[in-house]
Design brief:
The chain is an alpha/beta fold and 664 residues long. The chain contains 25 helices and 15 strands. The strands form 3 sheets. It has a 5-stranded parallel beta sheet with strand order 1-10-9-8-7. A 5-stranded parallel beta sheet has the order 2-3-4-5-6, covered by helices on one side. A 5-stranded parallel beta sheet has the order 12-11-13-14-15, with helices on both faces. Strand 4, helix 4 and strand 5 form a beta-alpha-beta unit. The protein is globular, with a radius of gyration of 25 Å.
Amino acid sequence: MALIMTTRDKPWLFRTYAGHSTAADSNRLYRTNLAKGQTGLSVAFDLPTQTGYDSDHVLARGEVGKVGVPVSHIGDMRTLFEGIPLDTMNTSMTINATAAWLLSLYVAVADEQGASRNSLSGTTQNDIIKEYLSRGTYVFPPAPSMRLITDTIAFSTKELPKWNPMNVCSYHLQEAGATPVQELSYALATAIAVLDGVKASGTVAEKDFAEVFGRISFFVNAGIRFITEICKMRAFTELWDEIGRERYGIADEKHRRFRYGVQVNSLGLTEQQPENNVYRILIEMLSVVLSKNARARAVQLPAWNEALGLPRPWDQQWSLRMQQVVAYETDLLDYADIFDGSKEIERKVEALKDEARAELANVLSMGGGTSEEVIGYMKRQLVESNTARLRAIEDGSTKIVGVNVFTTTEPSPLSGGDGEQIMTVKDNVEYEQIERLKAWRAQRDAKTVAAAVEELRRAASEGRNIMEPSIACARAGVTTGEWGGTLRAIFGEYRAPTGVALTMTAVSSDSLEAIRARVKALADRLGETPRFLMGKPGLDGHSNGAEQIAVRAADTGLEVIYDGIRVTPEQLVKTVAERQVHVLGLSILSGSHVPLIREVMQRLRAAGLGHVPVVAGGIIPADDVNVLKQLGVAAVYTPKDFDLNRIMSDLVGLIEKTAGTRAA
């Protein structure tokens, strides 16, 4: 069949996910990237901002400016977008639990710029369910969290007609181990939970519901299984159209269009031979731009060195140029969908749709996405899928070039040492941000702040929409922590299920059996089962690695203690003492490993527990590995350490070394 030329399509939005250190530094980066041809912004916020804390909160220690930009008040938001006209910019904000607050700050700054609210275009991610399942920046329980999402949707429908107030994010589900079927079904279950919640709230007129449906967007993940990912995206578009027609009666095809942005898979980026990541990123991008009928509206690509640390501006530029070469130098945008009529593609798409419908029906039958039973069920399924994924890498049935096959390599000219390959956040960033925050609090009108916070409290307590009161708080100078604290006092806080089964499974291997025998011998020697505490200090919610370590440790026969994310160093040391822990593991992926682990080690020694061995894992540059070992950490593991049984052997070895001292 001959290809038919059509009018050349417009390219998708070019984005890079960016934000670090300070609002001023991030603003310079944004303006530089826009000058290089980037056409939309994708803002990364730091963890205190994402979880509703000010930069000087105890839980923010070590986290300020590490994985994104700190925004503590409207002054920071002004600086972040200085010189960037918001009436013409398309801005995506990766923000969830505090999405209503960051959107309020954005609208308040746009109002100051004189931008019409009708002109504001962009997206707030605002997907709390996937935070419970995979990323961990949740704050409030499901019911009030869904109410906040509904408030932003009702407000945006009336005030921000070009804004996507809720962006269903399956990206992090795949990062947590989701299969294509799980990514499809769990994302669609989330969208249904939100849409059903909006209908039940009565806050949007029936005549406007089609607009609500049409403004729901998606943010997906594209992995390395190229054909499967193309088919997954075609399945997404067809299932979404089906849900619009059959469940909600959306008549206009334009409102039923599946609108999505994408970041290609970061989970598959390797620390070993990181130059190979360039090819992986390109192949994964092609899976979401080749099929015209399922083409992404916006694409942001990771950088080749993200498994090593924070990318530099040059690294981000390289990923941006990759998009531009595909969009402008190839003939991709000249043709209709090149996959229409392919029997193999149709077969795979239909198979994915059938499996996804079945799993979606299963989730809905248990109560839907906001049911705590369903949240627990989905979390367990993701942990199990991720366990299976890692076992396949370990046993070689999944081959990853440079990791478990073709590992011989020449020295890379791109790799001049970790200090030259990545960007680091300076140690003074946190101190200076806190000093600016103190000055901000001192210069504002305390009575105006108190009145704005009280009106927010009343609106939240009375069930009124909190958006306009939040915008008033932004204008008054209320801080992120004050907004978050006000709502915490009303809604309470939540701890999502870990999904981790801390019991020995039947799955075995020769190496695991040998480790189990050593653990049993230790138990006989100690007169008790050795205890391993898996800790997540700080605000880092990326728990996938910690979960897999906990699961495998339980498989060896160790008694595993794992309470999930967001545990303070003080709480960890208290648990070590109370439970008489034999080895402590710390997992941190936010870049805050040095200050947090330093505090843990200091507290252990002060409590007379300096003999307890400590191991650490995360995205940790080589220079920092040396720092951690100088602090007394026994072993450090990074993404290159994919053999979990070897890590388990090391843990057991540490207990064997210290068991005699403890027994004596």
